[in-house]
Records
---
Amino acid sequence: YFEVNSDLNQFSYSDNELTAQQVYIQRGCFCASVNPVPVSVGSITGTKLPNGTWDIDISISLEWDEFSETDSRTISGIFSAQ
């Protein structure tokens, strides 16, 4: 999860900027620990569309602490603000 200033029409964050923006990912599983993990490697870009939704591209890498497991995620799609 992450938040974007509602005044923006586009954004682009990468690597250390992800940490500054407090970007986190959380597993949805029956794992021993499902605590959110900060994201500090990769990029997230978005453009606000005329109907108020966002076209977002995410490409990140992270390490799940409890497993010392490196994971990569790539997500692209149209999202609405909550």
---
Amino acid sequence: MAKIFGMNFYEKNISELVDELDSIIKCDEKASIFTPNVDHVINNSKDKNVFDIYSSSEYIIADGWPLVTTSKIKKKSIFRITGVDLMDKLLELSDREGYSVFFLGATDDTLIRLKENISNQYKGIKNIGVHNGYFTNNDEVIREINSKKFNILFVGMGNPKQEIWIRENMKQLDCNLMLGIGGALKIFSQEVERAPQWVQIIGMEWFYRFLKEPKRLFYRYFVKYPKFIRILTSEVRKK
């Protein structure tokens, strides 16, 4: 593990990660997987409880080039593995192995499109369950998830809400893998278009997203993100 920003980041590539997660399913064990980016690091710096929840996760994956660059400055090495890419690989795994998956988050309209797309593309998945992210009866949601053996639970309720929910309910959930995947549900429902591959490679996916959703993302990228410079400077100064 590579420790940056107080968290132990996973150091291997996405193929090795998926193999490890597959073993967890086959051994009927449990693990949470969080995919922090710059926004998450800023949130963690402001709330110790959120930071502690992140730090307790079995897998912490770097979703963002600034985190990868920071690791290199610290003479460590981590791979960038986005929540979208990991979700895609786990759906491919579920398709091959006949696993069941559940999606928690977003709106009912988004989930209808998501379920249709997943069903058409990954026909080997055994069961697909969905529930929107706007619920008040938590016990009822847990009962629904536990009604069938869902191997993988994708939670897309935004940071830090999704991570808090996973850690608070993990013991009660009869799932093997629990992932916080943020806005990935909208991408797989084709409600939001992902940046082209070349944009991702040059590290400008954030700007592509801003152009698509300027009102929602202006504050995050141009007001909130500059605070990361202070956090980064403090991290680099540490031995």
---
Amino acid sequence: MRCWPTRSGHHLFTVTVPQLCRLALRLPELLPAPLPLLARHRSHSVSLSQLQVASLLANAFLCTFPRRNSARRVRRFLSPAELPDWSASEARLPALSCHSEGLIEDQLGSLQVDFANKFVGGGVLGDGCVQEEIRFLINPELIVARLFTEVLDATECLVVTGCERFSQFEGYADTFKWTAKATDPSPLDEFGRRSTQVVALDAVHFTQRPL
């Protein structure tokens, strides 16, 4: 910490860290019961307030959770027997609009895809810094899903509703850097959540599996 800028360091240790500790200590009050696990091969959901998410993130930052080896968040599951036979479908495709500019996270009112690792969040807490990790960094409430979401199967996805964006950025991978705080322009829904839905699904290679 010797090379930490004096002004930033003072704010970190007098404001940020004490607030993190206060949030962490409130966890037994905010979440008196254990979080349910979003297990594989089941469709179920978990609902959390922003304050509950903040307390969970504070505890994660302070490393208070025991290590395991292995917003509303909804896990969707489709059994192999329910998979449609697209080659036999006679349904017409709806109108498709393609855009060469813009970012997924800037598309208000759209279902925003996170091209995820089968382990939700990928390398966001390690050395990853591509599409999924960047999304989890600018919407850090997404990180909490890692606490209770099992590995995704090829026919499963995770739907996260209400995560707020807090950061602006530029670059990608090695050139990625934070640029400024963000004010999320997404309107609030009837439950007071941000009208943002992110669907995390593991990208599947189809090069050897023609449609």
---
Amino acid sequence: MKGPKTEDVAEMLIQYINSICIEELSKELVDRMSQIHPTLQQNFTRVCVDWFKELSEKKYYDLRNEASVLLAKRLRKELDSSYLPHV
């Protein structure tokens, strides 16, 4: 089975995040993700961890993403020492 292209998934996520209230997004997305298969939950967590690692490496940021970058920098050591097994 061939899935959607990464760039298409990213674009859909960008449009989704940009088009609705972030509080609604967070609640609805978290609710939905908590209902999927545990293996898929683990895989989604891997994506989130990779996102935080990427953010933690940003050298340049401004007030629009400063809080996210600084949070990622604080979390980085914990993320690096954590293991998410493929089960």
